[in-house]
Amino acid sequence: MALPPGTLPEIEPVSRESTAAVIARQLRDAIMTGALPPGTQLGETELASRFQVSRGPLREAMQHLVSEGLLRSERHRGLFVIDLEPGDVYDIYAARSAIERAAMLRALRGDRDRIADLLEQTVVEMATAASEDDPNALSTADLKFHEVLIDASGSKRLVRMARTLLIETRMCLTALQSTYQRVEERVEEHTKLIQALRDGDEETALALLEAHMEDAVQRLAPGTSLRGGHVPPVPGNA
Asked: DSSP per residue over the chain, as a string?
């Protein structure tokens, strides 16, 4: 139903991205890639100077990242990039497992070959990055694989739920880079997932996806498992 004339007289067309949104995006990217490592304190004076902006839009941008869970506020100390403790790693991958399992099931019931082709493009990017010894590009392509899988589910809600999780995952992938003896292992894991999807082998696809998540958790938080046993507490939770 159309809105009655004059209902929203104050609204004007949005012509460009706000300064705060641009700052938030650049800070988010720096956190994701490890340019701003976990635990880094963000100083307003220094950042305002580097961005060449006033503190108003800078504070707005940083509050966006606080609400996304990428920055934490300490009273009388300021804002810091979050540290991913074992409990955070467990929580991120447990949530991702639920979302990506649902996405995989939808993919298996959809146009499997089309989705597999899309996923194969990201694996080619991963292989290229591995051959060029570019760990940052490898992690970017790795993350893109999972974004494509979730997007291909056709579920707006799965995509929305995954958005912040995938940002936190990018932080995990940066840490994961040093845990693989052969970077080709990451390419192989994703290639097997694609083949199971293409074959319509639900049991294998879901088992490989679970093993993929479990492997990451054990590398990042040794002694922790998504399959049972000790579940570490998530910092900040009672």
From this structure: -PPPTTSSTT-----S--HHHHHHHHHHHHHHHTSS-TT-EE-HHHHHHHHT--HHHHHHHHHHHHHTTSEEEETTTEEEEPP--HHHHHHHHHHHHHHHHHHHHHHHTS-HHHHHHHHHHHHHHHHHHHHTT-HHHHHHHHHHHHHHHHHHTT-HHHHHHHHHHHHHHHHHHHHHGGG-S-THHHHHHHHHHHHHHHHT-HHHHHHHHHHHHHHHHHHHSTT--TTSS--PPPTT--
